[in-house]
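Sanity check record (used in CI):
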Amino acid sequence: MSASGGTKAIIAALSANLAIAVAKFVAAFFTGSSSMLAEGIHSVADSGNQLLLLLGGKRAKRASDKTHPFGYGRERYFYAFVVAVVLFTIGAVFSLYEGWHKISQPTEVESPIWAFAVLIFAIIAEGFSFRTAVKESNPLRGRQSWVAFIRRSKSPELPVILLEDLGALLGLIFALFGVTMAVVTGDGVWDGIGTLMIGVLLAIIAIVLAVETKSLLLGEGASPEVEEQIRAAMESAPEVARIIHMRTLHLGPEELLVAAKIAVEHDDTASDVARGIDEAERRIRDAVPIARVIYLEPDLDRLRTTNA
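Expected output for Cation diffusion facilitator family transporter:
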């Protein structure tokens, strides 16, 4: 992921959510709508989440030290996981509680014009934010489906913003549905139903984000396509007879560790082996620039020796 692209999407989402949160709280005050209140809390949670993503990106840039010799790249995964937890605890749980409370003790929606005006404004603002996230994601997504992109992306920011913005748009539609039905029928229960729908939606998005970021936190290897590029580059080095085995690990979205045992000819000198390793590392970095940490262990090509 382009760091600037991810930051641009985060700032666009943050700007939209701060403006929308204020508008929603004003509408909730005048209308007494639980859907609007839940949406206001949702926007506040989203704004906090975007600040967490910006903080994670900044902290991930710290230089490596003795305590963290491979750097702090995974800070971005940690803060993305915190975003999922915040989205669930603050957004989903509050909305579910407020929806249940509204259904148990329904009240009439007052001054609905406030709610409709704010929801229309919010849909336009969230649409702009979502469009920015889609635009920044497309170069990275390539020909992948959106589901595959969210599941396979090693950079957490854009998938998080995409799901947040999508959830925000759907949440606004649910809020609009609840308020509209409450006004048309005169029954405040519909407002509570819209709030429950928002809570369920946020819970689903939070769980998806938690599962995906947990996998990144535990440590994911390079994609099959990237691993194939690394293998091809390594095997193209003259002194590398073959790859015995290889492991990769993302130390961060833009930093990959490559460890491999390579077979060399039994009559190669130490100088030949050293030169071959240096050349293999150079070719790997040319092919995959994010392969910044490379460990290659030479071994005799026992398979070829045995066959001979």
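Residues 224-307 form a domain with the Alpha-Beta Plaits fold (CATH 3.30.70.1350). If this sentence no longer matches the regenerated tokens, the check is flagged for review.
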